[in-house]
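TASK: fixed-backbone design
INPUT:
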């Protein structure tokens, strides 16, 4: 029962944090503060009433238009609110599925690790949605999101390593735990290796094509993903990102109407960070079984 309450609470909280994300995504590119100043219509400047700021409900009630100037309010607003709300609710539910002990308040080693990972995952998912939106809209992965993301990834690796070590020295030691503890410490290398790999691809691309294909923002994003998910899932995330990016780039080829208004589609830059973010969100839940399935299919 407690799992349902906490899941619903996380979903509602997610809607509110999705709403805050919208404020950041709208104001940061204009170099406005995301905390100072009341919300206002981007078109007529009128300050919004409290009931025009309710996530999801306000957009639906106003049918996506400003009450006074009738300027349309983009689809991005309700979509982002829904995305963060749904991801937070799903992540919370998933945490309880991973560690059924949590519902009974019985804090075993596994429950504690899953809980730490679950709480961190909520923060990561928020950062991923924010990066996906900002890269899609402005081809920009702000340092103020990727740098805290890297710090959080390292903190999580420390926590997992620390939990493993405390269990190992606190009596419940066995061989398996010892290797798990060692493995968790390798996650630091995961962050560095993931970022380094993308950095090499970036340099190769610049040498061959003579232009920037992968930005430094993507490199920092991969460092965050590597620290958070580990090497195997970071490689999987990169593969998903490349596949999604390729599919997206092929759309104008199969749909001529999509390129009619954009003559320079060959030079069009891809929001690679958006595809990496989607891949990372998938791997945050199913990365380990997906990677294991691929490795066994490939015969490793
Ligand atoms: Zn207006």
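OUTPUT:
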């Amino acid at each position: 029962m407690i799992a349902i309450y906490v899941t619903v609470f996380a979903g509602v909280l997610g809607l509110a944090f999705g709403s805050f994300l919208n404020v950041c995504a709208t104001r940061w590119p204009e170099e406005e503060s995301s905390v100072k100043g009341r919300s206002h219509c981007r078109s007529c400047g009128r300050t919004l009433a409290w009931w025009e700021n309710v996530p999801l409900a306000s957009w639906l009630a106003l049918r996506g238009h400003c009450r006074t100037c009738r300027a349309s309010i983009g689809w991005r607003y309700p979509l982002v609110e829904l995305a963060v709300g749904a991801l937070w609710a799903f992540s919370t539910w998933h945490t309880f599925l991973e560690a059924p002990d949590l519902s009974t308040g019985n804090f075993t080693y596994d429950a504690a690790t899953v809980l730490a990972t679950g709480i961190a995952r909520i923060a990561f998912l928020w950062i991923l949605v924010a990066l996906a939106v900002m890269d899609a809209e402005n081809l920009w992965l702000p340092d103020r999101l990727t740098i805290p993301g890297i710090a959080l990834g390292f903190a999580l690796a420390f926590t997992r390593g620390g939990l493993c070590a405390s269990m190992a020295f606190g009596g419940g030691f066995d061989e398996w735990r010892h290797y798990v503890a060692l493995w968790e410490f390798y996650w630091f290398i995961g962050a560095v290796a993931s970022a380094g790999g993308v950095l090499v691809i970036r340099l190769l691309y610049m040498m061959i094509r003579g232009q920037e294909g992968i930005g430094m923002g993507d490199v920092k994003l991969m460092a965050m993903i590597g620290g958070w998910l580990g090497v195997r899932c970071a490689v999987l995330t990169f593969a998903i990102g490349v596949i999604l990016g390729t599919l997206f780039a092929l759309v104008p080829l199969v749909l001529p109407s999509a390129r009619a208004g954009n003559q320079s589609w060959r030079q069009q830059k891809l929001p690679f960070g958006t595809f990496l973010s989607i891949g990372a969100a998938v791997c945050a839940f199913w990365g380990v079984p997906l990677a294991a399935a691929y490795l066994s299919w490939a015969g490793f």
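COMMENT: The chain has two domains: 1-98, 141-300.
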